[in-house]
């Protein structure tokens, strides 16, 4: 599940039972078995109750590729709930919510359009700045900050997964040896595995052997 959607889905939001079968909003599957209707309800609950501050909405809507998948369903579903809501107070809350989300959504879309233009035309930055100076406002730079955090998150998760797949053979061997239950057998296996041999070309073989062996022995005693 995409991180932005996962964050909303796992916040404990509950879909509205009165609107669970709106045909316009059930086209396609959501995530982890949720229907589009349920996902849209979770977005509404998230925006209205869990994170009512608009500054937090921007942190979520910055995930454009994910949001664009759900955006048309979200607005359709919001309008459907507005039309079916009998409570005038709740109806007004839904109307205001939909307008606010749309306003921020449009602002972020404009920021993304400017960012894409800069990225695709690095040699024309001065001209772009001159033509669109008013668009380089605080909101745009705040958006860049969110983008950087998103990029750093993806770098972190990708690197973490890559490191898992390229762990050195020595680490895999060490994990195997450390799982030997009998202390004497384990120590003997460690001594054999890390004893220097003719095939080793380390500059300081004795230091390598002693350090690894002693560390493992002290760790397990």
From TrEMBL:
InterPro entries: At4g37920-like. It comes from Oryza sativa subsp. japonica (Rice). This is Os08g0320800 protein.
